[in-house]
Amino acid sequence: MLVNNAGVGVFAPLGAVTVDNFDSTFAVNVRGPLLLIQALLPHSARGSTATDFNGGVMRDDEAMHDALSRQTALGRVRRPKGIADAIVALVSDEFRWVTGGCIEISGRVLM
Description:
Largest sheet: 2 strands, parallel
Mean pLDDT: 79
Distance between the termini: 32 Å
Number of helices: 3
């Protein structure tokens, strides 16, 4: 099992985002997972599936956490344990019929 659980973002007005910001974000959020998946392919069983977890925003900074919590439908932002709990559930026998798709565990951040 591969867990690609890295992501970064630039929290700035669009006009303030630099090419360097974009390149570093793309490297972590897109290039990194691509390279990890490619490295895993030779070791994957035929018929393997992928499930995407949309984890949304996760912050340990309390001030940012409070501000982001007010922007979610559930009124909270998940902590790191939330993603771990979802992954543990997915690899359990109870989820043996989940064979792909996207599982939303973000607290429904309001846009």
